[in-house]
């Protein structure tokens, strides 16, 4: 039982928390701008590497480097939007999607160019895990869970309590109505990119703290983020966050030997869980658990 | 002289294989508006199907069937189609971007499977010893003959794609792409037509995968890279002109020429710089795609729908 909590449940929650923040940003962009942003994973990578620069350059901890990561990622999202997406907004959504694929490659190429393909880590050495009774939890896991909860709370307050957040939700629900009632569309789009890029950067740094930095760090969880966003109902950040949590737990728990001592799923296929969830969601709940936008 | 001939033959063979991929993607995206971001998955099943059926007996992977290539290639195309069927059936009735996400997922899962199912694919070691047709002719004639075979395959695919585009079936696909409601009102079932176009395109990709495997004489997880197998084909199609089969082939040849030339140029640079130049190229190919989307969305030669009979 303890083994289950220590090695499956807690890592599952941590992974789920990371997916949750990544998927919330992805879903937000989908809601406001109506396109699947294939560059979201690479925004995560970008944030993680920006934090690496601060960590190695200033000698600070990756947690303290979070603001740096956010500050370095938001302008990139704005620049990509201004250079490419904004001029394609009148084209079909499919064209935006292809454009985001191109933007993803460009960002990835810069990361490859500067940092090379070999993995990096923020810190050397091992910190002993905390023992809460018999439950063992890594300090970084506790901090990731707390950080993700804070990010989710901030997002909730923004969307639920502020005028800007209301405008974003209005754009997601009824874009035409929002336009005619005087929602400042350009401002809302800028804010959406800022929030989504910030969430992506945070998710990227958390993921890199838990694993290691590679130029494909974010791209490798893009599918999971999409699956979580669709499971939660695309365009609904809260649903996406919940979907992410479910997916992270499902990925870790799928390798637990529930029956006859053999893992349900070979650990090598963990990533397959995201795909399975995606397919099941598309078959049974194409609008997600919480009814995504139409 | 012979080295130069072999080099040119290699480049042309690869250009031909890319042309087959671009024609397949054109059926899906160009004609029907289906976003397939998982080209790699369909190439992989085609490549491995043909590899396993033709390669010699080995303890390293499933094999020893000893089929001739001409029997294995149709099955490679069928494997691509078979993979497309469930994916299309699930995601094509939903919004367009779900297909893009689902195909990306399929490509990733297949990459995992290829790496981990040692009994089937040899895992990271891959499937070596795939016979290349006409090898008995010796060099350079064997390779030239293989080039001719690839060229013949591309010509056949091209002819089929042209026939499709100009048939009532192709007209229906374009109608669905451009105005689904109107097509529905005309009594067409968009989901069924989309699925057929998706499966046809996937069969092209499966065949292209087989041609690739037999050209390399080896297939392994590292031989398939999403950038060169999926993304580059998109750039080719969009640069050439999506919706136009001539555009697909022209784009494949032109972009491949640029890609191969920059590869050669980069290789002339000393050590570390050569690696970095590859990343600069990756950046530039992404930028090129953006610029085409912005300034020449129709590509080099845009779509020219057949005129209705006067």
TrEMBL record, chain A:
The keyword 4Fe-4S does not apply. GO terms for cellular component: plasma membrane. It is found in: Cell membrane. The keyword Repressor does not apply. It is a multi-pass membrane protein. InterPro entries: ABC_transp_permease, BCAA_transport_permease. It comes from the Bacteria. One of its GO terms (biological process) is D-alanine transmembrane transport. The chain crosses the membrane at residues 6-31, 43-60, 93-115, 141-159, 188-209, 215-234, 241-262, 268-284. GO terms for molecular function: L-isoleucine transmembrane transporter activity; L-leucine transmembrane transporter activity; L-phenylalanine transmembrane transporter activity; L-valine transmembrane transporter activity. Belongs to the binding-protein-dependent transport system permease family. LivHM subfamily. This is Branched-chain amino acid ABC transporter permease.
Automatic annotation (TrEMBL), chain B:
The chain crosses the membrane at residues 6-27, 34-55, 67-89, 144-165, 197-217, 278-295. Its main location: membrane. InterPro entries: ABC_transp_permease (IPR001851), LivM-like (IPR043428). One of its GO terms (cellular component) is plasma membrane. GO terms for molecular function: branched-chain amino acid transmembrane transporter activity. Keywords: Cell membrane, Membrane, Transmembrane, Transmembrane helix. Pfam families: BPD_transp_2 (PF02653). It is found in: Cell membrane. It comes from the Bacteria. It is a multi-pass membrane protein. This is Branched-chain amino acid ABC transporter permease. It comes from Caldovatus sediminis. The lineage of its organism: Bacteria, Pseudomonadati, Pseudomonadota, Alphaproteobacteria, Acetobacterales.
């Amino acid at each position: 039982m303890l083994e289950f909590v220590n090695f499956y449940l807690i890592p599952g929650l941590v992974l789920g928390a990371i997916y949750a923040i990544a998927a919330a940003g992805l879903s937000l962009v989908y809601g406001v701008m109506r396109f699947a942003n294939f560059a979201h994973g690479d925004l995560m990578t970008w944030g993680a590497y920006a934090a690496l620069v601060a960590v190695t350059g200033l000698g600070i901890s990756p947690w303290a480097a979070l603001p740096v990561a956010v500050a370095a990622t938001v302008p990139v999202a704005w620049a990509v939007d201004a250079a490419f997406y904004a001029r394609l907004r009148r084209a079909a959504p499919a064209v935006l999607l292809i454009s985001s694929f191109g933007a993803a490659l460009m960002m990835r190429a810069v990361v490859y160019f500067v940092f090379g393909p070999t993995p990096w880590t923020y810190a050397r050495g091992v910190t002993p895990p905390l023992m809460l009774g018999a439950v063992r939890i890594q300090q970084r896991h506790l901090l990731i869970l707390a950080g993700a909860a804070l990010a989710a709370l901030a997002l909730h307050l923004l969307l639920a309590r502020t005028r800007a957040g209301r405008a974003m939700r209005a754009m997601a629900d009824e874009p035409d109505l929002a336009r005619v009632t005087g929602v400042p569309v350009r401002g809302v789009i800028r804010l959406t990119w800022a929030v989504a890029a910030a969430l992506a950067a945070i998710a990227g740094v958390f993921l890199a703290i838990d694993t290691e930095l590679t130029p494909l760090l974010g791209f490798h969880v893009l599918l999971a983020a999409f699956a979580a966003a669709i499971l939660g109902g695309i365009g609904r950040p809260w649903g996406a966050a919940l979907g992410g949590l479910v997916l992270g737990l499902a990925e870790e728990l799928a390798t637990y030997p529930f029956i006859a001592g053999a893992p349900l799923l070979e650990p090598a296929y963990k990533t397959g869980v995201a795909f399975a969830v995606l397919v099941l969601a598309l078959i049974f709940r194409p609008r997600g658990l919480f009814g995504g936008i139409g | 002289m012979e080295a130069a001939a072999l080099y040119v033959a290699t480049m042309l063979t690869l250009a031909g294989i890319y042309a087959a991929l671009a024609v397949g993607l054109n059926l899906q995206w160009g004609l029907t508006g289906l976003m397939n971001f998982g080209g790699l998955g369909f190439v992989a099943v085609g490549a491995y199907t043909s590899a396993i059926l033709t390669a010699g007996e080995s303890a390293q992977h499933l094999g020893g069937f000893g089929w001739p290539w001409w029997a294995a290639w149709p099955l490679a195309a069928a494997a691509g189609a078979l993979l497309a069927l469930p994916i299309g059936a699930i995601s094509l009735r939903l919004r367009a971007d779900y297909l893009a996400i689902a195909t990306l997922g399929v490509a990733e899962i297949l990459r995992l499977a290829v790496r981990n199912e040692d009994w089937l694919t040899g895992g990271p070691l891959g499937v070596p010893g795939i016979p290349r047709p006409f090898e008995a002719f010796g060099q350079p004639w064997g390779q030239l003959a293989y080039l001719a075979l690839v060229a013949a395959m591309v010509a056949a695919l091209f002819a089929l794609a042209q026939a499709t585009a100009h048939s009532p079936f192709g007209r229906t696909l374009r109608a669905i792409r451009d105005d689904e409601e109107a097509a529905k009102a005309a009594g067409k079932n968009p989901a069924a037509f989309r699925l057929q176009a998706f499966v046809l395109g996937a069969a092209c990709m499966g065949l292209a995968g087989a041609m690739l495997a037999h050209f390399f004489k080896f297939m392994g997880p590292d031989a398939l890279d999403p950038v060169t197998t999926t993304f580059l084909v998109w750039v080719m199609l969009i640069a050439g002109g999506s919706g136009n089969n001539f555009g697909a082939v022209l784009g494949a040849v032109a972009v491949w020429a640029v890609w191969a030339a920059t590869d050669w140029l980069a290789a002339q640079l000393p050590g570390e710089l050569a690696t970095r130049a590859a990343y600069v190229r990756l950046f530039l190919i992404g930028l090129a795609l953006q610029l085409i989307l912005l300034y020449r969305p129709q590509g080099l030669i845009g779509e020219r729908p057949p005129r209705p009979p006067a």
